Amino acid sequence: MKRIKRATLEAHGWRLGTAADFLDLTPEEAAFVGTKLALSQSVRDRRIAQGLSQAALAKRLTSSQSRVAKMEAADPTVSVDLLLRALFALGAKPSDVASAIRKGRSLAA
Predict the structure, then answer these.
(1) Entry pTM
(2) Between 94-108 and 80-89, two packed helices, what is the crossing angle to 10 degrees?
(3) Per-residue pLDDT at 106 exceeds 60
(4) Quick one: three-class SS letters along the chain?
(5) What's the rounded Cα separation, in Å, for the pair 46 and 26?
(6) How does pLDDT run across 11-28, given as a tens digit for each residue?
(7) Residue 19: which residues within 8 A CB-CB, separation 6 or more?
């Protein structure tokens, strides 16, 4: 957020913070949420880069298109295990997963 806009909002009584502040997350909870978001985004990015539909990825995972949509939306019902399986099904290596997580942390900071 631009410094001037932030100052204007604060001058009018608004408090600014992060989603973790708003939700009163512990640092561990915030790290977990950030990690899931980074993995979800990585699944979507890799799928699109490979020109696959959600249905095609679902077939690789023996799952459903709606489940892939939930994965990409970081739905809370989606496990980290499934996100990792999807990434590996899309050809990711462990170093790619680590890079996705690092990227997610830099965005959250």
Answers:
(1) 0.78
(2) 120
(3) no
(4) CCHHHHHHHHHCCCCCCCHHHHHCCCHHHHHHHHHHHHHHHHHHHHHHHCCCCHHHHHHHCCCCHHHHHHHHCCCCCCCHHHHHHHHHHCCCCHHHHHHHHHHHHHHHC
(5) 30
(6) 888 877 777 777 788 888
(7) 25
Q: What does the alpha-carbon distance between residue 105 and residue 107 come to, in Å, rounded to a whole number? A: 5
- pLDDT, tens digit (0-9, with 9 covering 90-100), for 36-89: 999 999 999 999 999 999 999 999 999 999 999 999 999 999 999 999 999 999
CB of 35 closer than 8 Å to CB of 104 = yes
All domains of the chain in start order, with CATH:
18-108 (1.10.260.40)
